[in-house]
Amino acid sequence: MPAAHRVPEGSPVAAFLSEYASDTEVYVSHLDTTEVSSRKRHFVFMLAANLAWSFLLGKRIYGALSRYGILFILGKISPIFKAPPPAVNWPLAGQLCLDIFLLSVLLPLINNFISIIKLRYHHGFSKSEIVFRKPSSATVANIVSQPSDKRDEYMNEVLRRAVDPEEFNQPNWGMPWEEWTVDFRAMAVAYEAEKKGLILREAWELSVWMKMKEGWSVIEHGKVSDPLSQVGMMEKLQHKLTAMGKRHVFTQMMEVIQVKTVAKDGSALPVTEEVDTIIADIFRRNEVDFAQLTSELATESPRFAANSSKKTK
């Protein structure tokens, strides 16, 4: 079962998420260890595509100067721009719709690729690359459009695909209809944070970060393949509660996590506010300060602690 807990409020990771993931409720991170050569090849393909899109967009914008009468208006001011008046008809309306569509699709793609170029220029292609993803506008619209009784199920399926290596290792082209948007700006900031020794690269292993009322929570899917780190955190909690004579609190909490965060097929479900409420109630009824205890345990974890020495790629 993936490790799930709150992110300590004062940790560098929490500060990073609050600033760079403030516009989304769900943020997914992982370390891309696919072949560097394949990532370079994908970058070249994207470069060629964006050059073609830029040429197409530039041609449409240049044609729009005469198509929509801009040159005709400027010609009234200066003879240099003299041009015939535009033909106002239905084909012009069709051209306008086409231009609006191309602008709304191609301009964000080109702008996004500029962020990719900056990232590659400053940080190149590392063997283990930090990747951040957030739901695209299309995904958010699809979730909202679902009937209320099926919305959670649909969201769980979206998150299941988000942590499936066969899914997230597929090349991302930044198209508006793709399920996830890669946040290249945050990736560049994460590299800088690593260089300064603020956040370890390993902090961004495969995880789903969720914004709750009390702060950020995380489901660490990367811990499934690293049982020692998962067991270590749980053992600390178990030992603390046992030392306090509250071993039964740990047992009740694990039962809730098992029932509420693991689907019938064994896949992980997001930690909802209901889970937080139930667990907090268990601790409150047993007179244990849940917030203080979880904060102490999480702060002890090297994943959320500031790194005192700089790491190299």
List the helices and strands and how they pair.
Blueprint: E1 3-6, H1 12-20, E2 26-32, H2 36-67, H3 70-77, H4 90-123, E3 129-135, H5 137-145, H6 148-162, H7 165-168, E4 180-182, H8 184-195, E5 207-212, E6 215-220, H9 227-243, H10 247-261, H11 273-285, H12 290-300
Helix pairs in contact: 2-4, 4-8, 5-6, 9-10, 10-11
Summarize the structure.
With 313 residues, this protein is of the alpha+beta class. The protein contains 12 helices and 6 strands. Helices cover 57% and strands 11% of the residues.
Number of helical stretches of at least 4 residues = 12
User: What is the averaged pLDDT score?
Assistant: 84
Helix content: 55-70%
Any idea what the radius of gyration is?
Answer: 25 Å
The tally of strands reads 6
Structural class assignment: alpha+beta
Task: Indicate the overall shape.
Answer: elongated
Compute the separation of the termini in Å. Answer: 30 Å
Q: Widest sheet: strand order?
A: 1-6-5-2-3-4
Percent range for β-strand residues: 5-15%
Which stretches are poorly predicted, pLDDT < 50 over at least 5 residues? Answer: 224-231, 306-313
Please give the largest β-sheet: 6 strands, antiparallel
Question: N-to-C SSE series?
Answer: EHEHHHEHHHEHEEHHHH
